[in-house]
């Protein structure tokens, strides 16, 4: 039986503070939801036999949900909606995106989770949403750790690991992050495969780095829970250097990082898969406007993300 699509659904973007790549190998990661990720609206077309369409202008996506269509967004959407037993005809789905695509901010997971919510409705269990979203995530990423889909579904600040899933952290105080998109597109699957190759070729070099990134995450979680921004900043700066050593850096990430530090941030590191995408910077308490201003003066288009309680 095929059900109707629900009229709208949202999903959160995400920023990884610590632990990217290491999380693929069982280490913990620390991530936070970006509440204004993606909102999808589904409108019935007059003709129910007409192929459904998906358009997200901010991401330059405008596709027909036709099984012949090779576009990854169409394939992922068909995988998710098919899993939900949702209609693949007779709807126009339009997305309002508040995060850039392919920048390491979880855009693909916002799409797959929001589609699963359109298909299964607001009362569906989170586990059912995640199961459906994972079908789409596989189209985009091959073998994702699942961190993006978890945060897209639940939001909040989470410790995530492959075995234990997502654990929400109860922060007493919030803090601000500044996200700096480099505009360099990146491909998570390519970066993950590169790390896998280097690990296979020289495990004695890269395995200790993976473990150190995991320990950095654990120390970072402690720092976040104690609102110790000085300690968090040291850990974030070290993580950036370790990720560069892992081979997932990019000259424009280093440049954006330098600009963030020059603009007064305590720390800045690449976030997500690397090879492009974004830098996440940590301003000192009360210094977010100065860091935003300094980055804008240097030609960037930074975004603010408030982490923790409102
Ligand atoms: O897609 P991104 O840039 O958010 O990267 C995801 C994080 C990785 O650890 C690199 C991959 C994964 O599946 O966890």
Overview of the structural elements:
This protein is an alpha+beta fold. The chain has 2 domains: 8-168, Ribosomal Protein S5, domain 2; 175-307, GHMP kinase, C-terminal domain (Alpha-Beta Plaits). It has 9 helices and 11 strands. It has helices at 72-83, 107-120, 126-141, 147-154, 188-201, 203-225, 229-245, 251-262, 288-297; strands at 8-18, 29-44, 53-56, 61-64, 91-97, 157-161, 165-168, 175-181, 267-271, 278-282, 303-307. The strands form 2 sheets. Strands 1, 2, 3, 4, 5, 6 and 7 form a 7-stranded mixed sheet that branches. Strands 9-10-8-11 form a 4-stranded antiparallel sheet. Helix 5 (188-201) packs across helix 6 (203-225). The structure holds (3R)-3-hydroxy-3-methyl-5-(phosphonooxy)pentanoic acid (PMV).
Question: Key features?
Answer:
Ribosomal Protein S5, domain 2, binds (3R)-3-hydroxy-3-methyl-5-(phosphonooxy)pentanoic acid, 310 residues, alpha+beta, 11 strands, Alpha-Beta Plaits, globular, 2 domains
